[in-house]
Design a protein that fits this description.
The protein has 225 residues and is an alpha/beta fold. The protein has a single domain, classed as Undecaprenyl pyrophosphate synthetase. The chain is built from 7 helices and 6 strands; from the N terminus they run βααβαβαβααββα. It has a 6-stranded parallel sheet with strand order 3-4-2-1-5-6, with helices on both faces. The protein is globular and about 50 Å long. The mean pLDDT is 98. Bound molecules: 3-methylbut-3-enyl trihydrogen diphosphate (IPE) (2 copies) and magnesium ion.
């Protein structure tokens, strides 16, 4: 059976769900947040140490202003509501992505949330926010050049947002779309990928466990035979 440390998820399909059931994309995002809570719980129950959630990409700024505002408000309220609970449950929150360009109040709240939970050790949630893999890689290369360090695998990885975090064992993308959308291009080199037909708000613990069980039985070669 394969050991399982890290699950990464591209939480896709909120907008379509919202339109289908509530005539509003934003209501889909709200419903998607309930799935986030369910999957965090399932991650702990399955003794997985790292959960990475793709919440907002560097390309998502192309969306209408009203949707962007709604998403960031949801995040703001989520942090207010959840940080204490995360702390009680020994959950550490880490933001991966370029948060420098976000508004100052939110930036402060994100930093504070990381600070409060940084010693926790049961589960680490990496929230990918204003995250783009190409930007992350270029940023790492630039830092290495500036520090006059060699371009090699170890050094590149040390300057990614995910430094010291093991690569995802599993990537799940919900929403019936088969692409990576600029997500963890480096880190997913040997990840087992599961494309799920369900839209994110419809995804549940059972679907999650089914994928985990499939993963455990998969033969991972890493180039070997
Ligand atoms: C994913 O759901 C969530 C974010 C990108 C924030 P979408 O909003 O992309 O949902 P669809 O793909 O349009 O249905
Ligand atoms: C990827 O979904 C980003 C997140 C889930 C946050 P998108 O819905 O933005 O991806 P594309 O644009 O359809 O590839
Ligand atoms: Mg989408």
């Amino acid at each position: 059976m394969n050991p399982l440390k890290h699950v990464a998820i591209i939480m896709d399909g909120n907008g379509r769900w919202g339109i289908k059931y509530k005539k509003s994309r934003n209501q889909g995002h709200k419903a998607g947040l309930k799935t986030v809570e369910k999957i965090i719980k399932a991650t702990i129950e399955n003794k997985i140490n790292y959960l990475t959630l793709f919440a907002f990409s560097t390309e998502n700024w192309k969306r209408p202003k009203n949707e962007i505002r709604f998403l960031f408000n949801l995040l703001d309220n989520f942090l207010d509501k959840k940080i204490k609970e995360f702390n009680r449950n020994n959950i550490k929150l880490k933001i991966i992505g370029n948060i420098n360009t976000l508004n100052t109040t939110l930036k402060k709240k994100l930093n504070k949330s990381e600070q409060i939970t940084k010693k926790n050790s049961k589960l680490q949630i990496n929230l990918a926010l204003n995250y783009g893999s190409k930007f992350e890689l270029i940023d790492s290369f630039k830092k290495l050049i500036k520090k006059n360090k060699k371009i090699n695998i170890t050094n590149i990885e040390n300057y990614l947002y995910t430094a010291k975090i093991p690569d995802p064992d599993i990537l799940i993308r919900t929403g019936n779309t088969k692409r990576l959308s600029n997500f963890m291009l480096w880190q997913l080199a040997y990840t087992e990928i599961y494309f799920e037909k369900k839209l994110w708000p419809d995804f549940n613990e059972k679907d999650f466990v089914k994928i985990i069980n499939k993963f455990k039985k998969t033969k991972r070669n890493f180039g070997n035979i």
